[in-house]
Automatic annotation (TrEMBL):
Keyword terms, alphabetized: Cell membrane, Membrane, Transmembrane, Transmembrane helix
Entry-linked InterPro entries: ABC_transp_permease, LivM-like
Protein source organism: Oceanobacter antarcticus
Keyword Cell membrane part of the UniProt annotation: yes
Top-level taxon of the source organism: Bacteria
The name this protein goes by in its record: Branched-chain amino acid ABC transporter permease
Topological type in the membrane: Multi-pass membrane protein
Transmembrane segments: 28-48, 55-74, 80-98, 155-175, 205-224, 236-255, 275-294
Length: 321
């Protein structure tokens, strides 16, 4: 069976089975799914930038937080339906990323990574001084007043499920396109890519904007589910730290990497987060060990052992005859 047809069949099955969860599932598991979905989308965006574009950022939480705050402002102050506001907030975040990129792209390598974190902190401090959105203490999403809890939780779950499916399909199709091949060429060697006629600056900007949009979408969705936002929660560097952990565990530069990594992270968080500091030390130790001994992550190891490449984006030249 053609791999694309198999992938489509699996996604349709997930959509059909998962889409019925509000009819039979517990609200706790729907809430858990939404939180995990947001982290997965965030990790996918970081993987797109670093794993495929070679742009290592530790400041992607800036766009996650902006997505949450734009959603809240549109819903509370603008009177827009919060679910519609999620999409509008993602678009607004992408627009903000355009001028921000002018600053970030002046830096390279480690300077770029640190620079993105500094930009995130500047945005956090700026938002913390805006009284209209609660200032430093944050505020609550009040636009759901009069809406039943069951309806809100069900729609939030469906939006999260749709966002996950769109993210997987969208990134897969993008990476299989000519632009995706150009992006991976830039990751391997900017000089070689430019010598082949690839507009490196334009391609990196496009990926930066796409990643910002995805992070903004995840942020808006997350705070619709949690109903409250604050600068510390929205712009915490932990978002990027956990995103990096997920990608490194699952496999950087592979679409299925964040999928597996998110599942592993959720299992660890679900069963060991009560251990506090030891839990964080364990996450760090596991990440270090994986980086040293299994640099390709779980999916990379599986590919080496079995030759299986489920969501392959690279093209293989086969001889004819």
């Amino acid at each position: 069976m053609n791999k694309n047809i198999l992938l489509a069949a699996v996604l349709v099955a997930v959509a059909v089975i998962g889409g019925t969860m509000p009819l039979w599932g517990d609200s706790y598991w729907m809430y858990e799914f939404v939180n995990v979905a947001c982290l997965f989308i965030f990790a996918m965006m970081w993987n797109l930038m670093a794993g495929y574009g070679g742009m290592v950022s530790v400041g992607q939480q800036a766009f996650f937080g902006l997505g949450g705050y734009f959603m809240l402002a549109l819903a509370n102050q603008g009177g827009i339906n919060p679910f519609v506001a999620i999409v509008l907030a993602a678009l607004a975040t992408a627009l903000v990323a355009l001028p921000v990129s002018k600053i970030a792209f002046r830096l390279h390598g480690g300077y770029f990574a640190i620079g993105t974190w500094v930009i995130s902190e500047v945005i956090r401090l700026t938002v913390a001084n805006i009284d209209a959105v609660g200032g430093g203490s944050g505020t609550s999403l009040t636009a759901f007043r009069g809406v039943s809890r069951a309806f809100r939780e069900s729609v939030t779950y469906w939006v999260a499920l749709a966002a996950v499916l769109v993210t997987i399909v969208g990134i897969y199709l993008f990476l299989r396109s000519k632009q995706g091949l150009a992006l991976q060429a830039i990751r391997d060697s900017e000089v070689a890519a430019e010598s082949q006629g690839i507009n490196v600056a334009q391609m990196k900007l496009a990926v930066y904007i796409i990643a910002a949009l995805g992070c903004g979408l995840a942020g808006g969705l997350y705070f619709v589910s949690n109903l409250r936002i604050s600068p510390e929660a929205a712009f915490s560097v932990n978002w990027t730290a956990f995103g990096i952990f997920i990608v490194m565990i699952g496999g950087i530069g592979r679409i299925e990497g964040p999928l597996i990594g998110t599942l592993v992270y959720w299992l660890i968080d679900h069963y060991f987060s009560d251990y506090g500091t030891w839990y964080l030390i364990g996450l760090g130790t596991l990440a270090i060990l994986m980086t040293l001994y299994v640099p390709g992550g779980i999916t990379g190891l599986a590919h080496r052992l079995t030759g299986m490449d489920v969501l392959a984006t690279r093209r293989v030249l086969k001889s004819v005859g």
